[in-house]
Amino acid sequence: METNFLTQTQVAFHNLNGLVNGIAMDGRITRNEYEALKAWCHTHEGLCSQEPFNSFFEEISTKVKTGNVGSEEIYELKEILEKHALNFEEKDKTKADLHFLQGVCYGIMADGDINKYEIEMLKKWMDENNQLSETYPFNEIYEVVATAISKGKIDSEEYKELLKYFKEFMKIE
Fold first, then answer.
1. How many beta carbons lie within 10 A of that of residue 73, not counting itself?
2. Please, are residues 80 and 63 in contact by the beta-carbon 8 Å criterion?
3. pLDDT per residue as tens digits for the range 6-16
4. What pLDDT is attached to residue 139?
5. CA-CA distance, 110 to 112, in Å (whole number)?
6. Cα 123 to chain center, whole Å?
7. Which of 40, 79, 88, 163 could cysteine-pair with 13, CB 3.0–4.6 Å?
8. 75-126, pLDDT tens digit by residue?
9. 152: alpha, beta or left, given left = phi > 0 and alpha = psi -120 to 50?
10. Rounded to 5 degrees, what are φ and ψ at 137?
11. What is the CB-side half-sphere exposure of residue 67 using CA atoms within 13 A?
12. Terminus-to-terminus CA distance in the chain, angstroms?
């Protein structure tokens, strides 16, 4: 497998893994979150020319195309991701974790809201992955998340700050 292609499939895999986990953080799946999963499928369809990505993509897109993505389907998507994880391991675990974090940020934002529970779950993941604490943008996002949690609520300033970092990290305007 060509190195550039492998890198693209690894990034796509870890982004999707984060997206699914980000969507699942608040325990509900909205229409916008479903649209985010569809958008991931549409964006990465071009990577299906080779295995193992083709088989992985086929399983994921089959679940998403049903149009019904609830808690059970999110669980099934997580099972598919777990089943294929070894095929998309990155040598640089830091990069893999940052790609996962990108997906989580996108998943949290996908419903158009960032709520306290999602932020608490994000902080928990960040605490468990503190080996990234010196890595940009992990360190800056962590600071904003920790501040929001310490205040006990997400006020408009924290919300704007989180949105700014999430969008910057995801490289969208």
1. 17
2. yes
3. 899 999 999 99
4. 92
5. 5
6. 14
7. 88
8. 999 999 999 999 999 999 999 999 999 999 999 989 888 888 899 999 999 9
9. left
10. -95, 5
11. 0
12. 33
